[in-house]
Amino acid sequence: MSQSLTKRVIAFGAALVCAASLVACSSDAADTNDPRQPAGPPKPGTLRVLAGSELADMQPILEEAAKATGVRVTFSFTGTLEGAEALANGSADGKYDAVWFSSNRYPQGIPEAAKRLGNQAKIMSSPVVLGLSASAAGRLGWDSKPVGWGEIAAEAGKKSFSYGMTDPSASNSGFSALVGVASALAGSGSAINAEQIASVTPALTQFFSAQQLSAGSSGWLSDAYQRRATGQDPGQKVDGLINYESVLLSMNASGKLPEPLKLVYPSDGVVTADYPLTLLTAANEDARSAHQRLSEYLRTPDVQRKIMETTQRRPVVPGVDLGAQFAQRDLIELPFPATQQAVDGLLTAYFDKIRRPSRTLYVLDTSGSMAGDRMESLRTALVGLTGADDSLTGRFRQFRSREEITLLPFSSAPLPAQTFTVPETDPKPVLAKVKAVAEGLQASGGTAIYDSLARGYQLMNDLVAKDPDRFNSIVLMTDGENANGSDFSAFERRFPALPPIARQIPVFTVLFGEGSSDELDKVATMTGGRVFDARGTALSEVFQEIRGYQ
Q1: Cα–Cα distance between 117 and 140 in angstroms, integer?
Q2: Is the dihedral of CA 486, 511, 26, 272 positive or negative?
Q3: pLDDT tens for each residue of 473-497
Q4: Disulfide: which of 24, 149, 219, 491 matches 450 by Cβ 3.0-4.6 Å?
């Protein structure tokens, strides 16, 4: 891929909606494949679709569609940047018949991707809005009066409320929020351009100072909010979420929240996903016929109502009335940036200047069982985050300006840790030091997982106490079971006694080799983190995926 193409894909691809994680779907009507593997040859009556994992909730609808139309959908779920690159570099050609993202605005901005997009049919829609707990909305007076993004940003800057949002390079809901706030604060009535970004940066910094929770997908974000609200998660509670209207309505409908979310529709507008089911130009005649039959079925009034009831997304076909759950009937749509320069500038400003910086401690297994290919995979994964990975995903998931990184290797016991802070200007010397440490990791000794994790919490507690205004997380990677020092039961007993600021730090565990999935799952659940599986995936891809949660 040429450098100019890579830059264009990065800028626009970062806005595509697709969670980086895979969500299993077991029906005959809507199977899923690993997008890193070929989707298989085309079969009559089958539509091979590259999509975002949020569409897993369409499974019941697609099961009925298969019966009615004879079209069986085979989903392959992909990440934001991976999906954009697959279209632009042609690797999707012959593997997929269609794509189904939240919007086609972004790939249409990349000539090499746009030329592969054929006929499309909008199936449903959902705006990205702010959902606040009823008590928080009442406290702010936003339960009974219109409010704009400017007032929301001002109150966020005062820390009047807190919220969670997805990483805009990993999920469309986060990127739509960033675009919406920036466009509204620019106040020009047109799409924000690159020249306006500097002028709105102070107000954007105010707005994002209230963000206390980050995630790589809309689904995990809503789950984390619910767990924290109900006390199942030790992480800091937040007052609300920026997410799809459909997700927020589904959370209310679940009955699992201690109090409902009040949906706040900013008076100056929102950015809406319209979910176009899009045929690829290389699709064969059978796929074209399947796409047409499926699209026509999904747009029939009865099915539109079923989609609305099942997924809480809005119908797009005229004559289908909105359900009572949609308190805001009419929406003002904010303009989307029209140039690659504006999109690229907005994302760069967000990561390097606007958002609260992150702090991550990596607890890394360097025991004897990691010798050979496993250790090389670990070195490659870490070095890639320093900027050495020139791939589309690697460029947006590398260590960022102002970020604090601690590497804590371990074998039979915790080894000396090293902490680095990436400066705002000239980060290369510090990243070179991180790279050198990663390349110098050597495999030997036993496996003291829980003594090392305890040491990690001790280090993080001291770091957070000195500088609390960061996103904090621990990444635990091991290829085996604990063989030295204290065991999981000891860690489980000691965890409640950790200082409060330490207990709020989630652990993202990485399954690798023969790592104990049961124990690592328990660690992630207990700490409010998540398990990532690298047993059948390149470790570098998993480390990049975790970046969306940091």
Answers
A1: 44
A2: positive
A3: 999 999 988 999 999 999 999 999 9
A4: 491
